Amino acid sequence: MPSREIQLTLIRVYIGLDFIHHFAEKFGLLGAQAYANVLHYFSTVTAHPQPMLLLAGLCEFAAFVGFTFGLFTRVAAVGTAAYLVVALFMGNHQHLGFTWANPGGGWEFPAMWAFVCLSFVLSGGGRWSLDRVLLPRLPAALRWLSR
Question: For this UniProt entry, which segments traverse the membrane (predicted)?
Answer without folding.
Answer: 61-91, 111-130
